[in-house]
Amino acid sequence: MIVAEQKPLEEIKSLIADYQNVLVVGCGTCVTVCFAGGEKEAGILASSLRMATKLDGNTKQVDHLVVQRQCEWEYIDPIKEQVDKADIVLSIGCGIGVQALVERFPDAIVVPGLNTTFLGLPTEQGIWEERCAACGECILGLTGGICPIARCAKQLLNGPCGGSQNGMCEINPDTPCAWQLIYDKLESQGRLELIMEIFPSKDWSNSRDGGPRKITREDLRLAAEETE
Amino acid sequence: MMNDRENAFHIVAYCCHYCAYAAADLAGVLRLRYPAEIKIVELPCTGRIDAREILLTLEHGADGVMIAGCLEGDCHFQDGNINARRRIERLKQTLSEIGMDPGRIEMYNLSSAQGNRFAEVATEMTERIIELGPSPFRTMVRIEDAVESNP
Ligand code: SF4
Ligand code: SF4
C-alpha cells in the first residue's frame, strides 16, 4: 500500500491561510488503512482546523468528505459540486489523489495535507515499513524475495557493503542490513549460489531515471477514449 | 447578562462501564460529593473512545474532558484502557498543535471499589479546568444544542 502521514498542522494552516471555505477530501483506500487520510482522520483534521483557525482569530469554514478512491475519475466525479463550492481543497489522499483532483477539477485550488512517504506494509499494528521503490524491473526473484532497492540504504545490487554490522545497516543500528537478510534467506533455503551471481548494472531507465512512466494496454482501452 | 447555567463549567467524563462508571455510582451511594460540573457519559470500555469524539466534545464547547477507565492490568477487555492512554497522549499533542491547553483532557484509572477516588479525581479535574478558565469554544455551540445535534 501507499503509506503517508499527516503534515504538521502549522504547515497545513499556512497552505490554506488565504482561503475561507476549506474542503478536506479524504480517501478510503491506502491512506485509510495507514490511518492518515480516512474518514476518521478527515473528521479530526477538519475539527482541528476549525478550532485552530478560531483561536487564531480567523475562523474558517472547514467541511470534510471521503471518496472511496481518490485516484480514479469515477470516484471523484461525484464530488464536483462540493469542490466547486469550496475556496480550497485540502486533499488527504496520497500525492496521486491530490493530482487526480487537480486534473479533474481544473479551476480548483488543491493542496496536500499529507506527506506521501513510501510503498510498504504494516509489519505490526501502528508500524509501517518500506518494501518497494517501484523500480520498474523487479529483481526479487534473485534476492530471496527481499528488495535491496527499497531496503538497502545504498541500493546495492551486489551487497553487503563494509558497513554491515551484526546484521544491521551502518545508517542506523535499528535498520536490518537488507543484504544480510538476503544472505540469511538464501542460505536457509539452500539457494546461496544465487548470491554469487554478479548483477550487472541495473537498467534505471525503467525507473525514475527514464522520466515519468506510463503503461498502455491497448486491449483494455475503450474505443470512445482513443482520441489520439 | 449570562445566567448561571451558561456560566457553569462543563466537564464531560467518559467513564467505562466496569470500573469508572461503577466507581461514580459508588460515590453516589456513599453520598460522597463531587462537583456538579462533571457530566458523565458511560462507555463500554475506554478502548471505545475515539479521538474525534473528544475533539468534537471540546469543539462544541465543553471546558474539559476526562476519560476514566479501569486500573491498568484490570481492564475488562484486557487492554482497552492502555490503548485509550496512548490515544489520549496523541490527542494531547493534537490539542497543543491546535493551540489549546492539553491539560483540558486527562485520563484517570480507578477500580469499581474506588468511589472516593472518583470524587477525588472529579474534584481535581474540575479545579484544574476552572483554573484554565472557560473554553474558548463555548460560544460556538451551546453544549445543550451540541448534545441534541450529536446524539
Ligand atoms: S526490485 Fe524494484 S519492483 Fe521489486 S520490490 Fe524492489 S523496488 Fe519494488
Ligand atoms: S549495511 Fe547493508 S543495507 Fe546498509 S548500506 Fe550496506 S549493504 Fe545496504
Structural topology:
The complex is a heterodimer of chains A (228) and B (151).
Chain A: E1 2-6, H1 9-15, E2 21-27, H2 30-33, H3 39-55, E3 61-67, H4 73-76, H5 80-85, E4 88-91, H6 95-104, E5 110-112, E6 114-124, E7 127-132, H7 148-151, H8 178-188
Parallel strand pairs in A: 2-3, 2-4, 4-5
Antiparallel strand pairs in A: 1-6, 6-7
Chain B: H1 4-7, E1 11-16, H2 20-29, E2 38-43, H3 51-59, E3 64-69, H4 80-98, E4 105-109, H5 115-132, H6 143-149
Parallel strand pairs in B: 1-2, 1-3, 3-4
The structure holds iron/sulfur cluster (2 copies).
String of helices and strands of chain B:
HEHEHEHEHH
Q: Architecture of the largest domain in chain A in CATH?
A: 3-Layer(aba) Sandwich
Question: In which order are the strands of the major sheet of chain B placed?
Answer: 2-1-3-4
* Backbone structural class of chain B: alpha/beta
Any idea of the CATH class of the largest domain in chain A?
Alpha Beta
Which descriptors would you attach to this protein?
heterodimer; A: 228 residues; alpha/beta; Rossmann fold; 2 domains; 4-stranded parallel β-sheet; 3-stranded antiparallel β-sheet; 7 strands; B: 151 residues; 6 helices; 4 strands; binds iron/sulfur cluster
Can you describe what's shown?
- The complex is a heterodimer of chains A (about 230) and B (about 150).
- By secondary structure, chain A is of the alpha/beta class.
- Chain A has two domains: about 1-120, 3-Layer(aba) Sandwich (Rossmann fold), CATH 3.40.50.2300; about 140-210, no CATH class.
- Chain A contains eight helices and seven strands, in the order E-H-E-H-H-E-H-H-E-H-E-E-E-H-H.
- Chain A has helices at about 10-15, 30-35, 40-55, 75, 80-85, 95-105, 150, 180-190; strands spanning about 1-5, 20-25, 60-65, 90, 110, 115-125, 125-130.
- By secondary structure, chain B is α/β, with parallel strands linked by helices.
- Chain B has one domain (about 10-145): Rossmann fold (3-Layer(aba) Sandwich).
- Chain B is about 45% helix and about 15% strand.
- Chain B is built from six helices and four strands; from the N terminus they run H-E-H-E-H-E-H-E-H-H.
- A four-stranded parallel beta sheet of chain B has the order 2-1-3-4, with helices on both faces.
- In chain B, helix 4 links the parallel strand 3 (about 65-70) and strand 4.
- The interface between A and B is medium-sized, with 14 and 15 residues.
- The structure holds iron/sulfur cluster (SF4) (2 copies).
- One iron/sulfur cluster (SF4) binds near residues 134, 140, 147 and 150 of chain A.
